[in-house]
Amino acid sequence: MSPRPFRLAGLAALMSATLGLGAQTPAPPSAKQAEHISLWHGEKLNDPWFWLREKTNPEVAAYLNAENAYTEAMTKDLKPFSEALYKEMLGRIKQTDLSVPTRRGSFYYYSRTEEGKQYPIQCRRKAAKGGTYSEKAPEEMLLDQNELAKGLAFLSLGGFSVSDDDRTLLYSTDATGFRQYKLFTKDLATSTVSAPLAERVTSFTWSSDHRHIFYVTEDDLTKRSNQVWRLDLKGGKPELVFEEKDELYRIGIGRTKDRKYLVVECQSTDTWEARYLSAAEPKGAFKVLLPREKGHKYDLEHREGLFYIRTNKGAKNFRLVSAPVATPDPGHWIEVVPHRPDVLLEGLDPFEKFLVVMEKSQGLDRFRIFDIKHKTWRDVTFPEPVYAAVPGGTPEYTATAFRLNYQSMVTPASIYDCDLASGQQTLLKQTEVLGGYAKSRYVTERQWATARDGAKVPLSVVYKKGVKRDGKAPLFLYAYGSYGYGSSPSFSISRLSLLDRGMVYVIAHIRGGNELGEGWHDDGMLLKKMNTFTDFIDCAEFLVKEKWTARDRLVIEGGSAGGLLMGAVTNLRPDLFRAVHSAVPFVDVMNTMLDASLPLTVGEYLEWGNPNEKAAFDYMRAYSPYDNLRKGSYPAILVTSSFNDSQVMYWEPAKYVAKLRTLKTDANQLLLKMKMEPAGHGGASGRYDALKDKAFETAWMLNQVGINK
C-alpha cells in the first residue's frame, strides 16, 4: 500500500507528552487529517480520518500506541485501585475448580481449571457399571489449552467434538483473535495430533462412521460461512458438498439430538433453510427440508422417524410441528405447540420419551416438559422474580433428566438435573463465591419503564440492601438491543465490586432484543432502529425520575452493537450520563455498511438496512454515531477495542475518538484503550488477562462517580 502524503505531526513530541514526559498534564493525541471524498447518493462527503483503515501503515500503529500511552498516563493514579479490584475479584473466584461431568456415550466429560493457569483443561472418565460417574475411573486429559497456548498471546478454542466410537477428538483453534480457526484431530489413544485439516473453519461435525467429518469454511474476504466440505480421514481429500452463494446467508453444520441426521442450516436475518443427510450415509447427498421462502424461519430436530420443526409460518413467535421424515411438507404437519402471541418459542430438546421446549415470556426464560406417551405438559418453575435459565447440555437422547443452568443477579450459576417424569430438580453444583458471599445481602427486582410511545420496557435491577432511593446512589446501566439477542439477568462475580460500593446495577431490555418476543426485535431494527436508542434514554430518565440515581451519578455501558447504542445515546442526550464505557463499538455505521468487502456487512443489510437505498441511507445516517458527532460537551468516555477484532474493525473506535477529540468542548476524559497484541472481539482469551481488563474498566467507571477505593 502506497503511503499517504501526510505524517502524524510532531510524533516524537506527541509520544513524549502522552507519556507525561516534560508535561504535568498530558496532551491528548491528535490524528492528522487527510481529505477523503466519497460520493453517497449524489452528495460529496469528506472523511478526514479514513486513512486509519490502513492497518499496515506504521502511522496507524503509531497513533494507536499514542492513544494507549495517553490512556496510561491519564489513568496512572487509578492503578492502585485497579490492582486492588483485580485482587478483590480474583479473591472471590475458586481458581482450581471442576465443571459438572456430562455423560456422552461411554464417558463423562468435564473441564477443570488450575490456579495460576489461564485456560481450562478438557478431560473425561469412563462411565462405571450402570452408566454412573465415578471419580475412581482414571482421568483422560483430552486437551490442555494451556499447553496449546504456550508462546502465544491469544488462543481461542472454537469447537470440541469426539467421534462416535470415542477414539478421536476433533477441535479448532484461533491464535490471532481474528476468528481464523484451524481444524485438527487428536488420536485419544496415542495423543497424536494431525496437521491442520482445514483453515477458516466455523463449524464441524462427525458422521456416525467415525471416519468422515463435515466442516464449514468462511470466505477469505468477507468471513461469511459459505462452504460445506466432506473429508474422509482415511486418506481422502476434502470434497465441496454445498456452497451458499447468496451473500445474505451464512451456514453452519451440526447433528440432531439423536445423532441420526447431519443438518446444514442456511440463515439470513429473516429467512432460514435446512438441509439434512443421514449420519450413517456420509457419502450421500443433502436434501432440502423445506425450500427457502422469504420471511419463513424454521429449524429442525428428529426423534423416532419424525422431524420436529420450529416454524414461524403463521406464527410470529414460532410454533412447533411434527412431520414424517418422508413427507415433511406443511401438508403433513401436526401441531405440537401452538403459537401464542405473548410467548416466544426459543428451542426444542427432544428425548426418547419426552420433549423439552424452551420459551420466553415477559422477559423471563421458561421450560416446559411434554410427556409423549401420556400427552401431558409440565411447567418447570423457578423461585425468583428475575432470573436466567438456559439448557445446560444433555447430550444423551435416552436420558431421563435434562440439565439446566439457573442463576439470577443474586444467585450464582447453578447446575440442576430436572427429572423429566416428575419435574423434580436436583442441584448438582453452584458456583462457589469465596469470601463469605451471602445472597441475602442483595436484592433483585423487576421494574418497567414506559417509553415515549407507550411501550413498557422491562428493567432487571440488583443492589445491596440498604441502598436508599433518594437520587444519590451511583447507577450502572447496561443494554445491548440488537439482532434479537436478549440480555440475561445473570450472576456476575466481578459485579459484586460495584454492588458492595453502593452502586445499583440495571439491565435495560430495550427493543432490538427478543425479551418480549419476535416483535420486540422487529421494533428495534431497520427503519425502527431509533426505538432502541430512545428506549434506553427513556429507561435512564425513568431511573432518575424514580430517584434510583441522578444524572451525575449515572454511568452506562454497551459493547459491539451495544457500543453503537452508547454512541447514539451519547450524541442524542450527552447531558443525561456521567460516564460511558463503549466496548468494541460499531460506531462508523455508514462507512462499514457501504463497504461490501467487510465482514458482516452484506449479511446485515436485513438487520440495519442497505444504505445503497436512499431511504435506508438517510435513516441510518441520522443515528450513526460517527456521522452525528457535533461540537459540544460530552460525558467522560472510555472506548476499548482490539487491533485484531474481525467483527468491529479497530478503525471504527479509532476514528470515532479521533473525530470527537476535535469537537468536544468539555474537560471530561476521552480515552481509547486499544489492545495491540493478539486479542478478539471479546478481548483477551486468558481468564486472568480478561479479569485485569475488567478491573481496569470497573475502576475507571467507579472513579467517575467519586469512588476510589
Q: What is the class of the largest domain in the CATH system?
A: Alpha Beta
Global morphology: globular
CATH architecture of the largest domain: 3-Layer(aba) Sandwich
The chain-level structural class is: alpha+beta
- Sheet with most strands: 8 strands, mixed
Strand content: 25-35%
- Residues in helices, as a percent range: 10-25%
Number of domains: 4
Q: Can you give the mean pLDDT?
A: 94
CATH superfamily of the largest domain: Alpha/Beta hydrolase fold, catalytic domain
Strand numbers in spatial order across the main sheet: 31-32-34-33-35-36-37-38
Radius of gyration: 26 Å
List the uncertain runs.
Answer: 1-23
Number of strand elements = 38
| Cα-to-Cα separation, first versus last residue | 48 Å
Q: Under CATH, the topology of the largest domain is which?
A: Rossmann fold
Output the number of helix runs: 13
